[in-house]
Amino acid sequence: MTDWHPDTQAIHGDAGARRTVDSVAPPIYYSSTFRAGSADEFASMAGDTRHPGFYTRYGNPTHEHVAEVVAGLEGTETAMVTASGMGAISTAVLALLKAGDHCIAQTRHYMATAKLFGEMLPRFNVEVTIVEQTDLAAIEAAIKPNTRLIYVETPANPTMVLTDLAGVAALAKQHSKSTDDDKRIITLADNTFAGPFNTRPAALGIDVVLHSATKSLGGHSDITAGVICTTKALADHFVWETSLTLGSTLSPMDAWLLLRGIRTLPLRMERINSNALALAAWLETQPEVAKVHYPMLPSHAQHELALKQMSGGGPVVAVEINGGYEQTSKFVAALKLASQAVSLGGVETLAVHTAAMWGGSMNDAQMVEAGIAPNFVRCSVGLENIEDLKKDFGQALKAK
Ligand SMILES: *Cc1c(COP(=O)(O)O)cnc(C)c1O
């Protein structure tokens, strides 16, 4: 094509090099749009639900790669990726609700999720009842004739209280007057804290499983991403249209990094589960520690439920220090391996003084209600050597 002007050559000069090869590592389809071979093909691409090669907001082959892997891990028919966990949560929730509907959410949620239910949905005339998640009878009592969604998050951020997933799924089925997707009660679970290695909500009857893939799925603290795992019917007829309308589109590069991260999820989670449980059990024996919240500890108030629906406790260990705000701040600041940073599920250990983190956005009463005492520390345990972690936490406890 050497007869082309350089202006054209710069844009079309690679036409002879276009071909598909079967690479072992998946390619990154770094393209916002995709060619059709004919007018007919173009029309069928445009009309095809979730076509992976039409326009990236509608779908992208790299999205499809990672979504298929996560759907397999969660045991759902299909999955869709979004640009963040909140993108997944807001897209799924808005896809399934209309004005006049009622939904049920928990007292303890990830903060932005709490805002979605507490502030945003009421603006669109969706009725929300907030219930104590540990009380299945309270969830049942909240169900009304117009209940459309039950939204759960387990273990909940940051207190590590659990919701009975099988119990909630059974309630939704029992109180649905129809089996039609547009009439029945749909259950959604944020599975970010446990992850598919430890809990598979779909196997317990939950309809939609949500992830902040920014956390354990990605696992390297380098991307933000979200995943919605559900049935083909719910994805095709509800979630996809909302997704392309709201536009929480994951970058193909980040989809690829997510897939790369997920390759080692089982190995990372094995180490994280054992490190977190060992650190939690050790912290419980320290005189400077008042209480440790971790589902796999026999001292957890819902340990039996944990054993029923979790095969491991996941990365988050919540610790109450003996002392007040100042001493807790000193403890966190004295940690050398554990960084003071939000997020969780990465290869590195993190610790946050939750009262300091949320002090800016909550008043004292709200913090008490959210279960965040001034001596509360949320740790995300990483892959470091466990003896080094104990050494680090031990010296920081002595320094407080
Ligand atoms: C981080 C997190 C979210 C939000 O995810 P982003 O990727 O930050 O948008 C939602 N739920 C839980 C439980 C989380 O930890």
From TrEMBL:
Signal peptide range? none
Xref: InterPro entries:
Cys/Met-Metab_PyrdxlP-dep_enz, PyrdxlP-dep_Trfase, PyrdxlP-dep_Trfase_major, PyrdxlP-dep_Trfase_small
SUPFAM superfamilies cross-referenced by the UniProt entry: PLP-dependent transferases
User: Superkingdom, according to UniProt?
Assistant: Eukaryota
UniProt keywords (A-Z) are:
Pyridoxal phosphate
Is Ubl conjugation found in the keyword set?
no
* Pfam families per UniProt: Cys_Met_Meta_PP
What organism is listed for this UniProt entry? Vanrija albida
Which family does this protein fall into?
Belongs to the trans-sulfuration enzymes family.
The keyword Electron transport appears for this protein: no
Q: Which CDD domains match?
A: CGS_like
Q: Provide the protein name.
A: Methionine gamma-lyase
**So which cofactors does this thing need?**
pyridoxal 5'-phosphate
- State the PANTHER family in the record: CYSTATHIONINE GAMMA-LYASE, TRANS-SULFURATION ENZYME FAMILY MEMBER
